[in-house]
Amino acid sequence: MRIARFSVREGSPAAGSVSFGVVEGDPSQPDSLVVHELAGHPFGQPQPTGESYRFQDVRLLSPMLPNKIVAVGRNYAAHATELGNDVPDVPLTFFKPSTSVIGPTENIAYPPFSSDVHHEAELAVVIGRMCREVPLDRVPEVILGYTCANDVTARDIQQREGQWARAKGFDTACPLGPWIETDLDPSDLAITCTVNGEPRQNGRTSLMIRSVAELIVHISEAMTLLPGDVILTGTPAGVGPLNVGDEVAVSIEGIGTLTNKVIKRG
Ligand code: ZN
Fold it and tell me: Can you give the pTM of this predicted structure?
């Protein structure tokens, strides 16, 4: 199932499943992309409300509002090398704040204190239930699904400051979407990033140093994960600069494409 968060005509956000079908009460357009509204939140057993909308009539929002985003650095060897870093002995983890999240129709606002903002295409894992100290064999039980992420990074600030809170935590630095795919094996998916249609990153999730399951074991050893929390799993090689006016697209096989424009901060 593909679970999106959306609003219609600037109304209240709602969860919905996205599939090909017919809008309720409108059989005139069979086989169009339809959003079926879900009651409440998408965790547990999603219940359809019976309301549905044509996909082009809704505005997609960030598919979840995470309490926290835990990200992993240097989880692809070729990316660690391209920035002159060694592969770490234990996964390198950091937080991005909830206020950095934007959805697929929102813009990345270039922070005025940086002059070298980079894209980082990443597979995002969405947690489905509260958990801590998750054993390896029970990791699938705590995952709701997967979406695309862009771990937007002010590279100059990251290199200048010992902690990465500002470099990776500024407003709009965490585009997520377009939706959560709940039926997906994350072990070997193509992951790409384009800027204005030009290929920049092209990797496979099979090149991760630590698997999704190993990362969740490692992170949940330390902290409770909540429904809607997001784990960013690292970026493959090919990171590079973004400029005001660019359109950056992260695509992951089996999920879809997350596209955002870069604008000047207003
Ligand atoms: Zn990253």
Answer: 0.96
Candidate CATH numbers 1.20.272.10, 2.30.30.370, 3.30.230.10, 3.40.50.11810; the one for domain 2-59? 2.30.30.370
Dist. CA 120 → ligand 1 center (Å): 6
Output the CA 122–ligand 1 centroid distance in Å. Answer: 7
Measured in Å, residue 234 CA sits from the centre of ligand 1 at 5
Q: Domain 69-264, what fold?
A: Fumarylacetoacetate hydrolase; domain 2 (3.90.850)
Amino acid found at 82? E
Model pLDDT for residues 43-85, shown as the tens digit of each residue: 888 899 999 999 999 999 999 999 999 999 999 999 989 999 9
Helix-strand-coil split of the chain, %, nearest 5: 15, 45, 40
> What separation in Å is there between the alpha carbon of 127 and the centre of ligand 1?
18
Q: Are 6 and 61 in contact (CB under 8 A)?
A: yes
